[in-house]
Amino acid sequence: MTPALPDRPIRGRVPGVLTAYGPAVLTFAAFLVLWEVAVRLFAIPLYLLPPPSRVAVYIITHADTFISAGLATLRLVLAGFAISIALGIPLGILLARSRIFARTVYPLLVGSQTFPKLAVGPLFVVWFGFGPMPKLLLAFLVAFFPIMIDATTGLQSVRADTLMLARSLGLGRVRTFLQIQLPQALPSIFSGLKIGSTLAVLGVLVAEFLGAAGGLGYLVITATGNLDTVLLFSTLVIIALMGLALYGLVVVCEKWSIGSWYNVAPIRAP
Amino acid sequence: MTYRAAGKDIQALVRTSLAIRRGEFVSLLGPSGCGKTTLLRIVAGLQAPSSGRVSVAGIPVSRPQTEMGIVFQTPILLEWFDVLGNVMLRQDPRPAGRAAAMRRASALLAQVGLAGCEGMRPSQLSGGMQQRVALCRALLHDPSVLLMDEPFGALDALTRDQMCLDLQKLWTGGEKTVLFVTHDIGEAVFLSDRVLVMAPSPGRVDVAIDIDLPRPRRLSSRDTEAFFHACRTIRQAFERRGVLRDDAAAS
Ligand SMILES: Nc1ncnc2c1ncn2[C@@H]1O[C@H](COP(=O)(O)OP(=O)(O)OP(=O)(O)O)[C@@H](O)[C@H]1O
Ligand SMILES: [Mg+2]
Predict the structure, then answer these.
(1) Prior bond to A52 cis, omega within 30?
(2) Are A258 and B74 within 8 A, CB to CB?
(3) Nearest Cα to B228, choosing from B196, B197, B189?
(4) A64 in contact with B at a CB cutoff of 8 Å?
């Protein structure tokens, strides 16, 4: 764990959103312009690569479709992510604190991760049908592992001198955990949540590819089947926005909980 | 006390025996690595000796001595609490007694020249300020035994003198027993009733030297013949052990 950045210079301490993300946004805008120009210049057929303007217009004119499909997927993503957190963090704590657990279950968990988890998706569909169950299971399966491991790593990197301090003050187990260990583990826990948030989206989408009656994954499959590249691109844009929003939510929580003493950098510039 | 590191045993302390009377101010003085911190941790019950025993007020030490006030060699402040939170760490978060502890914490901070710093973050403090916060944390519950591991090591000479005077006042005021680790001969002589001179490899207490300077001691006490004499005695003890070598004097 890195301690709080000792001395940030006064100027630029609170970089405005503009200075922080402005350059990246401009780069992206330039990329879109280039794309638009290239498609028109070389007369690339629509079914291969639609221009960004077409995609934007399509999204706006079909907003209803995207809102209802997006909400369906978002609900599953949020639920799957929540389950991953609710089980991943306690498992991580158990892993860090229980030698027995670390020696019996942990190797199995690690072993299971070498297996390509998305490959069991079809099996879940066979077992649980087209309902929400396979989506939640797959989201959990891919998202919980980094959350658990990062919680364990965070707790294991607690500085020994702080534990000695806790013993000398007689803080007891509960206060030592809450006031000494957990705060030091939080930066690592949040980095697990960031990775987990993107994986939860992935898990739900793949499960939707395999069989669903709605949702963004279903739209992707439909668009592919009909060679409707404009719909495909539009859906991908919505998916990207959803992933970004979920990631942003985690960063906001992180800033809110540890930002006062830990230097939270959502996207670190080198 | 024997450590195991890098595959071999390190004898950090051998045949160390000391008795400290209630209300006494004792300094441990010795070169780096002679086992001062180790000895302090054993006394505090934070580390079990590989052999031997310690007792406080007749009771053997077998667990951390939480009623002692301990200042560690490094401040060990928690970045996720502000200065006040760090000083109050020992205090139970339940509201009972919290207001009184908070007033005491503020008073202590003011006493060490950190008035108004309650809301600051440890990372915003200088090294010396951090160590003073750690001192306040150790004093919050007005302990009758104080263990201090080079508490003024990170302070400038002026602040250090002031802190020595303040510590003396604090010690005279209450019935406190202090075990004070330092490698500064003058500091040890100024503060102590007794200075235990330690020798390295293996670490041990070499000689105990009583300091018979009148109390309370003033800054001007350091200019007296008796003060020089005490310092010389200690320096000679180090020279005997080869800790200090003055080649020019030898040739
Ligand atoms: N955890 C440890 N494992 C192995 N060896 C240790 C450990 N802690 C201390 N030692 C060794 O014990 C000896 C005494 O260390 P200690 O920290 O007590 O010295 P010290 O007198 O406090 O020195 P300083 O003035 O530099 O703080 C040293 O040789 C050190 O290498
Ligand atoms: Mg030491």
Answers:
(1) no
(2) no
(3) B189
(4) no
Q: In angstroms, rounded to a whole number, what is the distance separating the alpha carbons of residues B39 and A80?
A: 53
Distance CA(A238)–CA(B236), nearest Å, equals 80
Distance CA B148, CA B126 (A): 20
The long-range contacts involving A1-9, CB below 8 angstroms and separated by at least 24 positions, are A1/A154, A1/A157, A1/A158, A1/A159, A1/A184, A1/A185, A1/A187, A1/A188, A2/A187, A2/A263, A3/B79, A3/B123, A4/A261, A4/A262, A4/A263, A4/B79, A4/B121, A4/B123, A5/A263, A5/B123, A6/B123, A7/B123, A7/B124, A8/A263
CA B120/CA A7 separation, integer angstroms? 13
Output the six-digit token pair for A198.
Answer: 């993107």
| Predicted complex ipTM | 0.89
Tell me how far apart the alpha carbons of residues A47 and A41 are, in angstroms, rounded to a whole number: 16
Measured CA to CA in angstroms, residue A215 lies from A63, A71, A77, A232 at distances of 14, 8, 11, 13
Residue with structure tokens 């919680």?
A151
Q: Kindly indicate the confidence band of residue B92, based on its pLDDT and cuts at 50, 70 and 90.
A: confident
Nearest-CB residue to B80 (from A6, A168, A261) = A261
Domains of chain A: residue spans and CATH:
52-262 (1.10.3720.10)
Nearest CA in chain A to B85: A179
For residue A2, name the pLDDT band (cuts at 50, 70, 90).
very low
Q: Which long-range contacts (CB under 8 A, 24 or more apart) does A23-31 make?
A: A24/A267
Residue B122: both structure tokens together: 């440890």
Identity of the residue numbered B147: L
Question: Which of B37, B42, B74, B80 to probe the A interface (max A CBs under 10 A)?
Answer: B80
